[in-house]
Amino acid sequence: MIVATVCGGAEGVWDEYERTEELLDATLGPDDEIVRVACNDAAIEHPDPLHHWCTLHHEKLAKWAQARADAGRTSEPTTWGVVVRKSIDEVQRVWRGGSSGLLCVDVALHRLEADAVILCGVPMDDRRNRFSGKQWGQVTRYWPDWQKAMNELRGPVRSWSGRTRNELGEPTAEWLTDRTYVAERAGSDTASVVR
Q1: What is the residue-averaged pLDDT of the chain?
Q2: How far apart are the C-alpha atoms of 92 and 97, rounded to whole Å?
Q3: Which of 108, 76, 102, 106 is nearest to 3 (CA)?
Q4: What is the distance between the alpha carbons of residues 164 and 186, in angstroms, rounded to a whole number?
Q5: Using 50, 70 and 90 to split pLDDT, how confident is the model at 179?
């Protein structure tokens, strides 16, 4: 099984990530794989080696990459965006909107083929952004795109907080071990049940 952790920018992201790591340590087996994904400036502080870095703000990547280096982060994650730019390694050409957080989810599910995605610091409400210290005022712009995606996200995606937790549920050991929804996900002919 492939589990993707997605870290966003809301206050509490690292507390939620720590809960995720504890859950995964207690639940996953030696054949399971963890893929770490972060969006925007969450990549600067990510405490573990980061695999993938998604953003809608390619123009900020150089500044964020320097801040990562200054913080001693040595992993070189694959960068993802929705437009072709020098700073973007991979382009997610089919993007439904919904913030950098939903871009992370789309990359995790469709490009990295994750069986489960755990959202940390992606509540999709107006709580403060950990990095700017300001309330996130874009939620009303992006939430409708998340709502349109909910039927696909229910099952493989869970969240620790906010609207996304209310809509998708909280990650649990039972959810990680009961993979029956995988066969039904998005009408896939190739998905199989993992137990």
Answers
A1: 90
A2: 11
A3: 108
A4: 19
A5: low
